[in-house]
Records
---
Amino acid sequence: MATPTTESAAAHDEHAHGSHGPKWLQHHFDMPVQQFEAAKLGMWAFLAQEILFFSGLFVAYAVIRQQYPEAFAAGSHQLDKIMGGINTIVLLFSSLTAALSVRSAQLGKKNEVNLYLGITILCAFGFLIIKYFEYSTKIEHGLLPGQYWHPHMEHGHALFPAHTHVFFGVYFMLTGLHGLHVAIGIGILAWIMWRNNRGEFSKDYWTPVDLAALYWHLVDLIWIYLFPLLYLI
Amino acid sequence: MTAQAGATHPTSHDHAHDDADYLRATRGFRSWAMTLDHKRIGIMYLVAVLTAFLAGGIFALIVRTELLWPGRTIVDPDTYNKAFTLHGAIMVFLFIIPSIPAALGNFFLPLMLGAKDVAFPRLNLASFYIYVFGAIFALFSIVTSAVDTGWTFYTPYSTQTGTAVIAMTLGAFILGFSSILTGVNFIATVHKLRAPGLHWKRLPLFVWSIYATSVIQVLATPVLAITLLLLIMERALTLGIFDPRLGGDPVLFQHFFWFYSHPAVYIMILPGMAVVSELIATFSRRKIFGYMFVAMSSVALALLAFLVWAHHMFVAGMSEYAVMVFSGLTFLVAIPSAVKVFNWVATLYKGSVSFESPMLYGLAFIVLFTVGGLTGLPLATIVTDVHLHDTYYVVAHFHYVMVGGTVFGFIGGLHYWWPKMTGKLYNERLAQIAFALVFTGFNVTFFTQFLLGSHGMPRRYYDYLDQYQPLHGFSSFGSYILGVGFVIMLWMFVQSLMRGAKSPPNPWGSAAFEWQTSSPPIAHNFHETPIVTRGPYDYHLATEEELYTGFPEDRVERVTAKTEKEEG
Amino acid sequence: MDEQEYITHPTTQLPPQLSTFAPEVDWVYDFIFWISVVFFVGIVAATLYFMWAYRRRPGVKSEPTGHHNALELFWTFAPLILLVLMFHWGFQAYMVQANAPDDAYNVRVRARQWAWEFEHPNGITEDNELHVPAGQPVRLIMSSSDVLHSFYVPDYRIKRDAVPGMFTSLWFEAIERTDVTPEGDLSQPDARRVWYRNQVFCTEYCGAGGSWGDNAGHATMYAQILVQRPEDFQEFITNPPPPMCGDHPCTPPEWGEQLFSQKGCTACHAREEGAPQLAGPNLHGLFGRQERLQDGTTVTIDDAYVRHSILEPRAQVVEGFNPVMPNIRFSEQQLDALVTYLQTL
């Protein structure tokens, strides 16, 4: 591995660092701007993929809502608009701090990057905690999909239109998958924070912060659609 | 690549010290398992997809053998249903989709672009391991109770059957992400890593097609992912979205499934076309006729792919108007497909055509793809589709496109680039014998099925009426010829690996870029960043040295001797 | 349509034309087929000629490729005309199939794993057989009680999926054949007289029942359409004849045996001692047997249990089996015959 003639491609990275430009420039790129643009383009392609991933669920939502409009109205009525609203604000705010962390990174302010990333992560945890309370209420009341559907409310028995359980099937799929993206986002942001602490980023190199923030904006964007579609109908 | 002397790129640096080719640059298991070299990752994919091809082929032979006679021949109905399901699922998800893009594409896309690697080498390695991980799930499904739903996983059968549907769909779900990440990687690579001078109009057609494929992979595969996830959840948690017993809509599943799986057809065929464009150009020594039309037809196919999914559902209970719209849109697909065929044929005109084994596959592709395309017309026409839908006619049609198209393209590409990948020559005579058997066996197997289908033989049948026996028997007989052909081909490649002669850098005398580096290429592809001064098919601009021919050696000697005699 | 000529034997490519739709469908098929032949021959001939004429020869170089935009545009857009024609004729013929005439005879079709049940407007039901009058439109309104099925009659060129949770429909008109004459005394209506038969396939994959038996699931989900002269059909529908076993009216056990296979029971229940395990219990020596049920109780199999298990199949399932048996409709007489038959096993 050590001698030049037998170095692996992995080892070559390190070799390349010394010979053509800054440490973070990978060996197969000629110029920093090329690496940045490639990374950014790749991320946008990935985000397009994410949107199409969720789009399937949105189509399912539209088709089934059109089939059972009363069931959707009744199901939506059971959701907590206050909690959903708070969560919307929490996520919007976290998107702002994510954007600010990118700006700080561009300016090379390492500590500010940490601060803003930290706030973003806290907001993400806040979102998940609120979501946890919402989920436990639904589970307690038996507002569950398919064969687990057994509604029982505190104030007398609630009468639901047929197939209201399908609404909750869609609800749990959409919010569950979104919640999973939030959880993954926490991991990514924490990783970026760790790299920031190691001093990997500078005025010249802040691509990973930018990409992580892009991902976080997407998570926010999806929620912006989920909230009215599920809570406000 | 015309790496002109003295015209080195300003930022390129000296690589004179690592001249060893990518196979010998490093040794040991770790140097492969953890490699970031796109060429090694391509080779690992190649081994993986060929293994899948073998497994899928064995299931195909089980199916064809069972169908030799009506009633029970070798297996019971349950086993038969699992055999055709696994044949389909393995061939589609584990073999065809990754075959050309992930194996050959990984190896050659950066070479053709004059790049040192793909844009995201770590992501590339991750894609491979995601593929392996998905394959393990599929294997787990097979060894537990397998799947008997057909590769389409139609609900509600797939939510009710007792077989291991979740493991298989989870496997396909994971394989989908491997495919998506490869697509993301290639898109960024084509946009950002082209060598200086390699503008869009100079891109090899292979790159154009792989690029179009990548766009579909990124945009269509996530829809399959969510569909399979919903199916898994439907089985695990009874969601009620697809299951009619819970108020769901089974036709919605079909819409979802085909929204991916029709574009997936183009994920499969576009790379086949990609390879054939290269083969036709190289072995005619001529630039592809109507280059921009061929390139744009790839892009057009990629776009149209998203608009025609419901032609799989003409009899599934859609409204007449939806049927009309999707029939009309489907016909549009014929246009870019025909444009490609016409241009390939026109390329031969005034060329200098030679008939080595890769070219035989290329020419066979044109013929078989034409049959596959033309037999698509009665399936796009509503009233004839009603008769032919879900019969052997459809089976024959898509095998002509998938096998006669994609697999022939893949095998042709494998022959063509084998010397570049391994640095070894192979036995041309054996290769041609294998070709003859594969071509004959394929046509005997599948042309027969057009007749079976148009006479009304439904697909996925374990048993059949006596009247269909002669055609079924003939078709099975063809499948054995096909099998023998592939075995000979395997033997031929193994032989080449064991004791094949060393290949010169450019054995076919191609002007394409990937042949301008050594065979096999060095670990970083090029000694210096190449500067491109001509197109990949500009034979009139290539120097004699670039077009050096050395394969097979006896032919070169013969040609040289003959030339000397004529001149003398 | 009276003037229409029908080809009533299979041709090289297509089955006989036995519905009023068939000739038009075949005409569109042939039109596409011959266009395809012209294109295929043209492409292959050009390829072969170029292969020969421009084969590699020493000293002969390839000529650089020029631009021929006019040619490119020609072969991009000229085929569109043919495609539009195909689309138009295909759609026009389809619209005829999509809209049943108002006077069509309505039959309800219920598909299940793995049998077809037909119900006439007057309540008469048939299993895997459907009597229809020749020369009159018949409309099928289809549903499925379990998974997807698809109703396909090659001789009629019709196909439509039966989808659980919704109704789908199709229609056809079986032709009055001139090449085959019904047998017997045609002046007297005969409910049993069949003019000709047409095979029905299930073309949407719907699973299998385990080991090979009379009923292999999807692959043997056959039915037959029995076309009758209108007057014979009228007789059939007003005075349905008793079931026949061979040349005599069935005895109850014989009828029971017939029903057992018609209703598709054979897919899941073996009747021979030591036969391979299927999805449901082996019925050999059924009566008097002690069985443990899923709820842990033990029952002795008798008339009451068998009857109950047929009518409510998922209520008392024997231990070790999944509750997968469908609800199958029987008349009282059919049920009696079936139970009598099962006692003989």
---
Amino acid sequence: MPTTRAAPDPATRRPRPTPVRSSTWRDRLHRFDVRYVPYLLIAPFFLLFLVFGLFPMVFNGVVALRHWRLDDPELTGWAGTENFRRLLTDGDFGNALYNTSGIFLLSTVPQLLLALIIASMLNRRLRAQTWWRVGALLPYITPITASTLVFNVFFSRDFGMANWALGLLGIGTETPIDWRADKLHSWIAIATMVNWKWIGYNALLYLAAMQSIPRDVYEASALDGAGPWRQLWRITVPMIRPVVIFTVVLSTIGGLQLFTEPMLFDLNAQTARGGAGGEWQTVAQLIYKVGWKDLNLGYAAAMSWALFLIILVVAALNTLLTNRISGGRR
Amino acid sequence: MSAPSTTGTRPTPASAGGRKRAALQGRAPQDTPAGIGTYLFLAVTTLFAAFPLYWMFVIATSTDEATAQLPPAVIPGDQFLVNLNEVFTLQDVYFAASLVNSVIVATTVTAAVLFFCSLAGFAFAKLRFRGSRPLMLFVVLTLTVPNQLGVVALYIVMGKLGWNGTLLAVIVPGLVTAFGVFYMRQFIVNSVPDELVEAARVDGATTMRIYWSVVLPSIRPALAVLGLLTFVATWNDFQWPLITLNGTDYPTSMVAISDLASGNYVIYRRVLAGAFVATVPLLVVLIIGGRRIVRGIMEGAVKS
């Protein structure tokens, strides 16, 4: 094989018929290079996505329509819509959906609001600017498994720092709050973990967008007597709207798939029950439990399809809503 | 308020005015009372961000009493080596092996993502071929698909391949990411001049040659950022490794940590000693590449 050393032999200087053999080889190689190599370069992504992304998603639909149990490989055959019909009356699924939306609301709204405020603080001229930003990333790099376990200690009933701090404020001094006993408290605890993890990351995204807002817009509004709060809502948010929508979509997708925090918030992780009475069991967690603890993959697949549809709807709604809120009014 | 005070003093009701003026005059806010408020606020949020990490260390270095006393312990103890020794000598959780597995998975995935994504990014950014636009659009669209949701079927696919319970199941699906392709394309479009590519082409360089000696040298910053982000994400991944590696003796460290926290009585000083060890590599990553990660996240945001 001729090596393709950089030789000034050009397909461009066509007219002169060059010595036959080597040039056709080179021409052919060149043509192959220009025409097909690009496809080779992008092939890995498409191949892997096809095999491990798209196919499983479609196949998931097939599994959802079948009986598919891990402990009973003989049991095959179509279930039709049975799995889906079961979903509609399944109290566990309803409960998980309720928990997921509760935790989702408690985590997304404060998360994005605080991120906005922190970003606008970071957007001022500051000393040691970079270090504040790097500090905001500490939660982002911390493994959720690790931080959730720390928060477990934090939210323990008898000697937890949360109860201790609340006690200083005079809350719950009589009977300490049992963070795992009821829905609201467990949701707050889990939402705290989610918020902690993502506020800094979102703040950086907002900050990036804020930096392209021209300063004189603020100057003009300041002259008109707008305070910082008004400026934030009337100028900053509308002007960074695309990023706001982006973060809303991202946190919707992430929030509705919440898995690690509720899993490990259980004092005995991996039971996947989400509390003694499923107080904080999320849909993703239920899917794991149904699929790999109860070994009913068919039903788990139906659940994940349902969750997917729910995410689509909620993400679309949120996008519309955010669009309205952040830009609709002037 | 006239004449903005120049040295930081107590916050006063006029703080908003001072801030406004500071913004107007482009001065740093530390010169105004409002500036103090900003720093105070940021200091509190940073403390809040850092505290769980710090507290992880406190408990990892303490005896059991640290988690059973009020007010809570806030100063690290001297039991770190004791706790560490317990974690590493546990019979049913092979913690050291799981750390090695995490290193293998994270480095392999990171290296592959850098290679494949920069190749694809280069093709989309600088090469002309039929269908490049719709194909790129497709890549971007896949970003919005929550991959996890095919997880049941993925498990079945891995079962057919015989990969469940092996590191292959964790490594292979992550070898190239849509985000990486997108990120690389953006960077290469902006930072590799078309003329350079054309010139190399005229000189008879093959596509791979151009990639190697023109593109790669000029995308080092992007490689660093994408590498750091990928490493962090892969290292921290929990759900899929849990599903595919659960029940095997040698999972990744994240699964091993959750094993430590399973059972009827959880010994937190031990669990958190393990968690701390598994967090250290990421802290190192943050210390080495903090500025770059920040810049990378911020740049990625503006363009998406």
